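Justification of computing resources. Each target in the renewal requires a structure prediction run like the one illustrated here; the chain below, 390 residues long, is used simply to show the kind of job we budget for.
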Amino acid sequence: MPATPLNPTDLYDIRSMLSDEERMVQDTVARFTDERVLPIIGDCFDKGRFPTELIPEMAELGLLGSSLPVEYGCAGMNGVSYGLVCQELERGDSGIRSFASVQSSLCMYPIYAYGSEEQRKRWLPEMAAGKVIGCFGLTEPHGGSDPANMKTNAKKDGADWILNGAKMWITNGNLAHIAIVWAQTDEGIQGFIVEKGMPGFTAQEVHKKMSLRASVTSALFFDNVRVPEANRLPNVKGLKGPLGCLTQARYGITWGPIGAAIACFTETTEYAKNRTLFQRPIAATQAVQIKLADMARRITLAQLLSLQLGRLKDKGVMQPTQVSLAKWNNVRMAIDIARECRDILGGAGITTEHCPIRHALNLESVITYEGTETVHQLVVGREVTGINAF
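Resulting structure tokens:
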């Protein structure tokens, strides 16, 4: 019997390793991306607009806080399903995945993991429904890779806290109804739920971006903001709080860029089959075939890496170093593929009529945020040598 042709974007038939529920999640989000995201996202990127009209639909599909328990209005998906959500959303655009990632892993997760039961019941159902949007305030203007050096502080004042400081590069900042803000206190770093409208709390959108243009990025400012004790996350102190959130978000990021790479690879492969130079399609040349084959190889390796990471997560044994390795590998894979695809497209590749330049520009942010490539390399280096080089 002749061999069955392989799927160029799934050469190792990873889909067969997914459960029926995981395949259903992937198909549902893929359909949403194809029908609702892709028709508008190029224009949104050009205009620097986040498509807020998609938020209710994402909520309806259970994509906000998707891996949190159903008792809080969430979908209760496993880790692999959440990863597939990220992959399919980022196949559309990193900005769409970033919105869902911040809402889910950086805002809803800390309320669930570190908050009181009252806080969970108050906020999580509304956030899952897309009626309350959150942002995550950790990075500060003077530097992001050393969060222990934060200047933002909160001081006790009777039954309240007085918050002062600033945060920078905050996804969803000007969309948000609440901000999960991390601040130095006399008892170490603690988290606070800061609500929009609290006197002294302002958000300022960052403009002139060449990356993540279909995403809202902001600076947050806190000038003697009075935060009630009831808004303090009571169940964590120290850096392990925000770093635990980042581990959750970085896990999703290991999957997301796979989607960006697949989008670039698929479009460029079709272009190469139809672009004729010197009386034959450029896909018939060894130079282009070698480039496309190498992309398929790197996508396959990234898929296997994230799938195994997801299985470890669902067993409860995933380690932060393993997340760092996958974030480093997979984002580097995607940005290199996006740039190579842009090159194969030639002059056509510099416009947002084709997706590679948009993904390449977005991935310049993804490779930097939530741990730069260098930071993740050093995390792995520390693991293999036992020596901290930070």
